[in-house]
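Readers of this paper often ask what the protein records in our data store actually look like. This encoding replaces a full spatial description with a residue-level series of whole-number codes. For reference, a complete record is included directly beneath this paragraph.
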Amino acid sequence: MTLEHSFSKARRLKKASEFSAVYQCNQTRVKGQYFVVLAFSRFQQFANAGTSDIIPALPVGRVGVVVSKKVSKLAVRRNRIKRLIREQFRQKKHPDGVDFVVLAKPRAAVAKNRQLSDELNDLWIKLHKRCDTV
């Protein structure tokens, strides 16, 4: 496995403040049958701060996954969805400096892995097009 295909801690949203930044700014949102994906450009965060300093080099794109008990009361099903989201994120190339939050909808618990993967691929494509225009 090459370094670019790993899923290190640097590629994950871990803190509540990181999730909050994505929720509050809510620059880009795409919805599907099974997921809602939010995106937030950290480059925009520096631009909004009004600093004339050079923007520091930002790390690779990061993802946060939210699968609540409303999706499924069974941890096994919630964990399956989380694993699938992380794997789909790992396999795709994402813009540097962009944070993503993937929210699972209740329908995701009963969907097949293939259906979830196909939808996530479509949502990533839509998001990347929107992130390029933002």
